[in-house]
Write a structure and sequence with these properties.
Length: about 140
């Protein structure tokens, strides 16, 4: 299940960048610690626990941080689905599959899966995350 530690670094580029606003957490060292925690999280259960911890500590989380949370969820889901890279532009999103991905049959020549974004979209990261979750069922 998922990649081992030797797997190449997962890449996501969908035109949304999640971050921790300085106005939300002014201390740079605290923001850095939070980024480190997010990058170390490997499963959705630990992510949920950490989100709750952040909400308890800082209150309601801003939109930019929610995008970072979505991107962390995408990384975890993509790892479980053996997806190497997710790239999106304004119109479509493409998933680059690992050769061992279960999203296609063994010996398949298919290396990528693409889908169009809806015309009206509030959050690309939320849309991609929901798409990945639909593959996990």
């Amino acid at each position: 299940e998922g990649f081992d530690e030797t797997h190449e670094e997962f890449e996501i580029k969908i035109g949304e960048n999640g971050f921790i606003p300085e106005s939300f957490i002014p201390q740079a060292e605290v923001r850095l610690e939070i980024y480190k925690r997010f990058s170390a999280i490997k499963d959705l259960e630990n992510l949920k626990t950490y989100i709750k911890e952040l909400e308890d500590r800082f209150g309601s989380l801003p939109e930019d941080l929610q995008i970072l949370i979505n991107q962390t969820s995408i990384r975890i889901e993509a790892n479980n689905l053996l997806i190497n890279k997710i790239k999106g532009d304004g119109i479509k999103c493409t998933l680059a599959l690992n050769e061992n991905s279960n999203l296609v049959s063994k010996n398949s020549k298919i290396k990528e899966i693409s889908f169009n974004y809806p015309e009206e979209i509030n959050s690309k990261s939320e849309f991609v995350l929901n798409k990945l979750k639909s593959f996990s069922v």
